[in-house]
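Bit of a strange request maybe. I'm writing a small parser for structure token strings and I need a real example to test against, not something I typed by hand. Could someone generate the tokens for this chain?
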Amino acid sequence: MKNIKYILGVVALSAITFSCSNDDDFTPAPGGGGTTGSDFSGVYMQQDQMARPAVNTVFVSPASKNMFNKTIPSEQNATFQGMFQANLEGLNPAFANPGDSNALGLTSEQFTGLLATDVLTVSLDGPTTFFDGTNVLTGRNLTDDVITVELILIFGGEAGLTNPEFPGLSNDNVDANDKDFLIGFPYLASAW
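Reply from user aminoacidic:
Good idea to test on real output. This should exercise your parser:
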């Protein structure tokens, strides 16, 4: 019995040893395709852009989505701020009143000027947060309730945090993720 275990062990070890390959010797086949190699030649274009959640979805008119997605951020404000402002004032007519502002004290022109350049800014020397009551758009934590913050800034008016103009439209009522985030990398909760 001892000899059979020894022979089976040698056979298993041999199978493992001889079935391994040295992956750094891999050479893709010409023409690409599948696991034998991929062809990455050609011209590629950006097809979608969404640095801040829901901004593209809400403020870019449907006929302009493709153009917005292909426009580099440094050119977005000049091209799209007027559209953003018209759409914001359509969502919340109070913004069309001269001097009306949101919880940040921004008029519709100022607010949409900030949003039309769709980049996620990150503070290098302060808290990273979408909004924590003091800091605004200095980054984003996984736990930040970004949709509620955006709804407050659109529908909340000047006193959006304490007494929103449109309370039913100023909160998505989703206050937590369905699963707790991990405390270590990759931080996201596992799939259901």
